Structure formats: structure tokens, C-alpha cells
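Appendix B, Record 12. Input sequence as logged:
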Amino acid sequence: MSGPSLSSIATVEDVVRLIHARKPDHVNVGFADMPGQLRVKYVSTERFLAALEKGLCFAGAALALDHGDVQRPARGVSTGEGVVFGDRLCKIVPDSVREIPWESPTRNLLFLADFEEPEGPLQSRNLYLRVLARARAQGLRAFHSSEYEFTLFEETPRSIREKDYRDLRLATLDSSYHLMLRQGVGSGFYNALMDSCKCLDIPLEGVHEEMGAGFMEAALAYREGVRAADDAMLFKTAAKIVAQRHDKLITFMARWSNQADGQSGHIHVSLRDEQGDPLFYDPSQPRNMSRRMRHFVGGLQALLPEFLILFGPTVNSFRRYQPWIFSPVAASWGWENRTCALRLIGGSPYSQRIECRVPGADANPYLALACVLGAGLWGMEREIEPGEESTWNVYENLDKVAPKHRFPRSFGEAIGRFDASAPARELFGDRFVDAYVETKRAQDEEFAALVTDVELRRFFEFA
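Logged structural output:
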């Protein structure tokens, strides 16, 4: 492909040179909404070049759209004095450029855009950037990677609706953990997914069959800062597109059936200084656990119960926070302990890290990463010591976890904890917290009024 390489694009001038070299007729520009869905529109080249300097408009109310485009109340966007549902200015991010594999060369460039005031504080990507700026002000560089569990179906968006989401056909008939037989049969989907990630510059470190029918996992490689969050958001979008283009369907729901385990979106995190030296490793300390790593864990342990609504953003998310399905139920920590919310992983100075096992696969990657980084920084700033390490199975010994470290038991309780959290308001801003809480309370109230199939089976005849 002619023109400068995408990895060299950093400024508006670089983008202009790229456009003049490639001569596309349209460019894709988009943003992630509160749930983490990517919303994109085609923009003519002429309009795109003008927007590089002046900005591009999107409807501000789109930030508050829930899954299925349900409009949620969000203070300052869809409710409140002066709300007129108008367009809002967004700034195109030059170094966010990627190539879309399923588009023609004349319209395969994708750029992300960040909302400016007044909606800027409500956009999830901007929220992550706010927390990242806090780290950078302290001379810290944040590195992350994400792992996603998902379920693949031999269905289409039309077929699942015609079946009313019942009797769905899974891509495999039984559990097939790392089984080459299943992987080989499904190589068409796998190869398309890997090829798409390569084209989109999403570093896919591994993908494999998991323990469960149709159950799969993908791990993204480490990246620095917001690029890691962009990777995660784009991966989820691309995976769903690739599946549907192969007459299949993927769900990242936290728990899609009573028989299925929860689906996670684990986050790995570590910090380095401005010179690139790792900060979580100290050979003079037990387990090589540096003071900064210890305080980072202390902050996470203290704030995970208050921030849970960002890791589990829907009513369904809380079907996952149950024991014995490899989902955490309390803010516990331990070395190589997968029953803990925080699994500490040792190794070389650059590989020693923290795995936060709290986020579901349904979490908005920007918000989940902002929570992990923000809570850890908060702990480091206050030198918070973590509680006792969990060297036991947390599911069998929940009584050993301090009550303050146990998770809220319901979606509604988690909303209240986040609303009342002073650290959340300090890290993320009152404007975001108020708007986010408002959207989640509306969802909670909607689902609280619904009659479920389980209720009909239990009570219809016998009540």
C-alpha cells in the first residue's frame, strides 16, 4: 500500500500525507459509547480533511445509548435543563488509525474520535485518558493486556430472534479444551479472526477452545496506555463481525445461560518508569513484590467493591459473580490463585504483574482499564497496604475475607456503592459518575419490573 506506514502516523500533517498518498473516497470515523460499542460512520475524503482541523460532529445523545439502542437518561446528555439532543464536536485522533480488513482499499481507513466539551467527560475513552494523565504526571507508564472469553454459535442475528433465544446451536457439541480436532474443523473462522486482527493491528497473542461447548478464549498482547484499550474495544467488535460474516454468532454476555459458566474479560497490568524500567519487581522483597506493587494491590482491594458496576455493567453481569464458576466474589488477592479477584503472577522483572479477574467480557474496555489503573494509583498515592493474602480457596473460605472487601450482591447495591464513592468521583469526575449512575438505575428499574420465565414456571400454577 502506498504512502507512509500507519505505525508512523502521529500528527494531523501525517494523516494528510496518508490521505493524499492513498486517495480514499471515504474514511471511517467513530467512537465507543458507554457500553463500549463502536459507532462509526463513513465520511467523504473532502469532509474528513476539513474535520482534521475543525472537528467532526456526532450526536451527543449517542453516548448514552444502551445495548439495542435503548436511550437511557444521562444527566447533561439526555436529561436536564438545556438538553436539546444536538450534535457535539469530536476531535479526530491521528495515531488511532487502523485498516479494516473487510473494506475495499478506497475506504478501509478507520480513525477514532474523542468528544470535546461539554460531552467530553462522559466518553469512556476520555475517562481512561484522564486516569492515564494522572499516572503520567507521576512519571508512570501503564501497560495492559486483556483476555476475553466468548461463546460461538451456529446461528445468525435473524435465527436467534426467530427462535426467541431458545434451543441455540453451539459451535461445538461438547467441551473441547485446546482440542486440535475442534480447532482444525473450525479453522475457517479462526483464520479469518486472526487475519482480521493482524490487519487491524490488534496483537492477538493466542486464541483457543475453552472448557465448555462453543466456549472460547482470546488473549491480547501487552500494549502501553490507551492503545491497549483501543485494541480490546476493536477486538470485541471485529470478532463479532467476523463471526457474522461466517454465518455464526458470538456473545460476550457475562452469563448467557444458567448452564454456562461466566464469561470474563480479565485484565493484566504492570507499571514502568519513564525510562521503561519495571516498577512491580524488587528482588530485595519477598516474592520480588515491590512496595509499589503492594500498594497498587492495596488500592485495588480497597476500591473494587465500590467500582464493581464498571466491571459488571448490566443486570446480567451479576449472574456471573457467583462462586465455583471461576468468577471472583470478593476483593481477595493471592499468588497464582484463580479463586481470587487479584491473581498475582511472578516471573522476570518485565513479566511480574497483576491479573484483575473481576471484569466480565461485557465490560467496556476503557472503563475497566480506567478502574484498574485508577484504583491502583489511588492505593500507591496513599501507600495502602493490602489485607492478608488468600492462600486458600476463596469460594470455600469466604468467611476469611473481611466484610469490607466482599462484593455487592446485587446490581442495585453496586450502583449505590459507586454513586457514594468519593474515590470514584475524585478519579472519574462527578459528571461521569452522575450520568453513569443514572443510566444504570434506569436499567435496574426496567428489569426489576419484568416477569421472567423462571417466575412463570415456579409460581404460575402453585401461587
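The CA atoms of residues 333 and 388 lie 8 Å apart.
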